[in-house]
Amino acid sequence: MPKNASTSDFPEKPVNPDLRKLPSVPREIRVLVAAAFVVALGFGLIAPILPQFATSFNVGVAAASVIVSIFAFARLIFAPVSGKLTDRLGEPTVYVTGVLIVAASTILCGFAQSYTQLLIFRGLGGLGSTMFTVSAMALIARMSPREIRGRIAGLYSGSFLLGNVAGPVLGSFAAGMGFRIPFFIYGGALIVAASIVYFSLSHSRGATEKSAAEEAVAVERIPLSEAWGAASFKAALVSGFTNGWMAFGVRMSLIPLFAVAAFASKGTLLAGLALAIFAVGNGAALTVAGRLTDTYGRRLPILVGLSIASLSTAAIGWVDNIPWFIALSVIGGVGTGLMGPAQQAAIADVVGQGRNGGKVLATFQMATDFGSIIGPILAGLIADQVGFGWAFTVSGALGFFGVLAWLLVKEKRETSNLDTPTIS
After folding, report:
1. How far is CA 243 from each of CA 206, 349, 379, rounded to the nearest angstrom?
2. Which parts pass through the membrane (predicted)?
3. Collapsing DSSP states into helix, strand and coil, what is residue 13?
4. What Å distances lie between residue 133 and 80, 95, 111, 146, 211, CA to CA?
């Protein structure tokens, strides 16, 4: 049995952070947190503009939603390769290469002269996206001390959210300069992010004479078969799929279009505001979600957060006034923020500290991306046929499949001096 494996769903028992001095956040993770903010700022910048840019080529809601789905589809297809590259070359090399690929594809989107070109260029970006996503998650899982995994997951997610708060608002105002300018800004932001990681993270290993490939070989890899033996991993795949459908797929593709359809002239500004307010609610939840995850376990925050996110998604498509639209955006963000760190910590528990989990993280990413792919397409078709209300309701209802998956995972409190929750 691998040194970090056990017969429980979480190979390492959570440690109550209140009963010992907490370790500090590793420097490598702090670098990734900084880079994540830059990436998210650029992504948030184009999020409210991308579907509208697609419709400017005289296509419908479903076709505009495909622009969101193609990015996730490319991520899904390339995820297994990204996992293998991370295992073989090491996380920093794969991360920097992936970010630069997305930067190039984003700049090309700004030059697109047809819907087909936009589709192709956006799809190419998905190849690079899965490279830096999987490598970043693998590095965080490998280097996170088990006592503060929830807090590190919250910190990393929070950096994305800070970028997502400012990005959509800036994107809405940048739309006044045309649809193309934000893509050039985003491409530049990605180059900055790649530079941060290259000059800070890669060279931080200068104390060792090992190359990235040699270093990756020296790290123990967790086999995917071991992860499949954990009920928590299988539940995380289901909740990752439903969250990908709702938060990364339907919300990013349909909210901008729904806002324009429901609120006319104010729709473009409200689209960016809604995505930013969603991120604000997400960030507010993250201030407590990491500590709750480390103290009380993974299951409860996921159940509560995913239920809240599902209900808010189901309801938002029926509102016809701005205050309710904004309120449900905030509530949806709170739900997603509560579950995010717990879900990431659950995967990190399966991988175990000090092990390379490239294939495991790639599998989880594939589940999330699969939801991001089919969610916008099917919800877009529903919106075209029977309206936005039913598109969001169906999406919210699917979220409860993730709730059911985690209800089937058993969590208990052991009687010990640590008295911390474990999964069995």
Report:
1. 39, 20, 14
2. 29-50, 56-81, 93-113, 119-141, 153-175, 181-201, 244-263, 269-288, 300-319, 325-348, 360-382, 388-409
3. coil
4. 12, 7, 25, 21, 22
